[in-house]
Amino acid sequence: MTETFTDWLRQRSEPDWTAVIGHPFTQALFTGQVPADSMRSYLVQDFQFVDDFLALLGSGIAKADRYSSRLAIAGSVGVVTSEENTYFRRAFDALGVGESDRVRPELDEATVAFRELMRDANERGSYAEVLTVLTVAEWSYLEWAVRAPDALPDDFVHSEWITLHNNPDFQAWVRWLRGELDRVGAELDERERARCLRLFQQATRCELDFFNAHWP
Ligand SMILES: Cc1ncc(CO)c(N)n1
């Protein structure tokens, strides 16, 4: 038996996990058929998600048990604050998103739930628990994005959201996150492993609710 900790977590988060990575929102994204209103509301909410996600990456850097791990997480901070940040700016310009919706939009229920989960992990979670939430967010996004066909939609708002989550660097980052959680998970006792599982399941549910909130 060579089931890794992250495989174990994912398998026990079905059927939600599979519902996330094959969500109709992502299928429509592949053909550029997410209606502009849905794409706008999704990205406005996601920009707020990314703010808390960035804070959680900071928490991971602080809690990591070694320098090489801090470096790996810091590399991802670089992407979120550069490529991904400029994507949001350009997409908001293209979609006509006003200043207040960029800075302080009214938050959906799904965004609030995810925010609370991330803030809790940030403030009270162990390194393993922080990694668990980061892993769900990144691994699930890689898994839907790798399902994209070779021919991407013309509109960069759609196509770049796919390629941001399906490129060699992002694949390597997710591979690192899983390996790191497998490494740290091997040291956990049963109670701590169970806490990670509950968090993994809750975060997966949050991902599903997040897509559902922007899909009819
Ligand atoms: C809701 C959500 N989950 C995961 C990601 C990937 O970090 C994202 N951008 N948004």
From TrEMBL:
SUPFAM superfamilies: Heme oxygenase-like. Residues 11-213 form the Thiaminase-2/PQQC domain. Pathway: Cofactor biosynthesis; thiamine diphosphate biosynthesis. Keywords: Hydrolase, Thiamine biosynthesis. One of its GO terms (cellular component) is cytosol. It comes from the Bacteria. Transmembrane segments: none annotated. GO terms for biological process: thiamine biosynthetic process; thiamine diphosphate biosynthetic process. It holds the Pfam family TENA_THI-4. It catalyses: 4-amino-5-aminomethyl-2-methylpyrimidine + H2O = 4-amino-5-hydroxymethyl-2-methylpyrimidine + NH4(+); thiamine + H2O = 5-(2-hydroxyethyl)-4-methylthiazole + 4-amino-5-hydroxymethyl-2-methylpyrimidine + H(+). It is an enzyme of class 3 (hydrolase). InterPro entries: Haem_Oase-like_multi-hlx, TenA_E, Thiaminase-2/PQQC, Thiamine_Salvage_TenA. One of its GO terms (molecular function) is thiaminase activity. The keyword Hydrolase applies. The active site is at residue 207. CDD domains: TenA_E_Spr0628-like. Its EC number is 3.5.99.2. Belongs to the TenA family. Catalyzes an amino-pyrimidine hydrolysis reaction at the C5' of the pyrimidine moiety of thiamine compounds, a reaction that is part of a thiamine salvage pathway. Thus, catalyzes the conversion of 4-amino-5-aminomethyl-2-methylpyrimidine to 4-amino-5-hydroxymethyl-2-methylpyrimidine (HMP). This is Aminopyrimidine aminohydrolase. It comes from Saccharopolyspora antimicrobica.
